[in-house]
Amino acid sequence: MIVLAIRLQKYYLASAKELMRINGTTKSALANHLGESISGAITIRAFEEENRFFAKNLHLVDKNASPYFCCFAAIEWLIQHLEIMSASVLYFSAFVMALLPQGTFNPGFVGMVLSYGLSLNVSFVCSIQNQCNLANQIISVERVNQYMDIQSEATKVIEENRPMQDWPQDGYVELRDLKIRYRKDAPLVLRGITCKFQGGDKIGILVAHEVARQR
Predict the structure, then answer these.
(1) Which CATH superfamily does the domain covering 2-148 fall into?
(2) Per-residue pLDDT at 213 exceeds 50
(3) Which conformational region is residue 182 in: left (phi greater than 0), alpha (psi within -120 to 50 degrees), or beta?
């Protein structure tokens, strides 16, 4: 029985861990969209984009609910098979005891064995379930470990890179085919910007990406 339970557990964890990883990925996208919507709520209302952001939020919720439902269904599948296996072993034991010659075992002993067998089955199933839940929740530690390996941003002021004392005070800024993204795997938010700013000019920049923000 223990060997079969271990095989069932390994079979379950092979897919459950991947489902938890997918669930974490879709949950991050939902949290990012919610944060952007809250920070840009004023601009969203100004441009009357409430329906679009609400529809996208519902889409992300549905996208996150799919792996979560699969995780729930997988653990229920495991529990059901463990209970069926435990009940089968208990039934077989009771059937064998019933076939033994009368007087082989004391009736009180047989009743005690069956009673403790039921309690042991419940404890056994709960133990396997807790082990699987622990293995699934450790996936969160993997995600934290991934963030720990991300290179940190540079300090605001780098003493080694300070300009010289005779550095020009006036000048201009020229952008040629500027392309910017928030992170390496994100889509471009600025696509081929080419412009020139003279020294002393006051420039207003309007950024429109998911949430329109004015700076």
Answers:
(1) ABC transporter type 1, transmembrane domain (1.20.1560.10)
(2) no
(3) alpha
